[in-house]
């Protein structure tokens, strides 16, 4: 469904150029997929992966979720933290992973 919605969108978000609650909800779900090692679910969906990358690079969402100091450490987040966060965040995450 998400892939179909993105196919019909004329902008970067589900509702074209308008960021909506739908995007916020998908941000949470797609971040959870990544955090818990389930990103393989979107491997064959380039539109969804590009959308996920746009969502995860959104400055406000990034600050409120995976770069927030209390976010759940995950080995699957290290590469994202190196790309979107900082070396320090990536190393902190790496050290906290049990």
Please outline what is shown here.
The chain is an all-alpha fold and 98 residues long.
Give the helix proportion (percent range).
55-70%
Mean pLDDT: 93
Strand residue percentage: under 5%
**Biggest sheet, open or closed, and with what strands and sense?**
none
- N-to-C span: 35 Å
Task: Specify Rg, calculated over alpha carbons.
Answer: 14 Å
Helices and strands, in N-to-C order? HHHHHH
**Which overall shape is indicated by the principal axes computed on the Cα atoms?**
globular
| Oligomeric nature of the chains | single chain
Describe, in plain words, how this protein is organized in 3D.
The protein has 98 residues and is mainly α. The protein contains six helices and no strands. Helix 5 packs antiparallel against helix 6. The protein starts with a helix and ends with a helix. The model has no long low-confidence stretch (mean pLDDT 93).
Features:
mainly alpha, 98 residues, globular, 6 helices
Helix/strand layout:
Layout: H1 2-8, H2 21-35, H3 46-56, H4 59-64, H5 78-84, H6 87-96
Helix pairs in contact: 5-6
């Amino acid at each position: 469904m998400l892939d179909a919605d993105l196919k019909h969108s004329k902008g970067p978000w589900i509702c074209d150029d308008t960021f909506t609650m739908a995007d916020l909800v998908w941000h949470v779900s797609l971040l959870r997929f990544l955090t818990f090692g389930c990103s393989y679910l979107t491997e064959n969906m380039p539109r969804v992966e590009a959308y996920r990358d746009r969502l995860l690079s959104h400055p406000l969402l990034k600050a409120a979720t995976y770069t927030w100091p209390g976010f759940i450490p995950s080995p699957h987040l290290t590469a994202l933290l190196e790309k979107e966060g900082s070396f320090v965040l990536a190393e902190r995450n790496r050290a906290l992973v049990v």
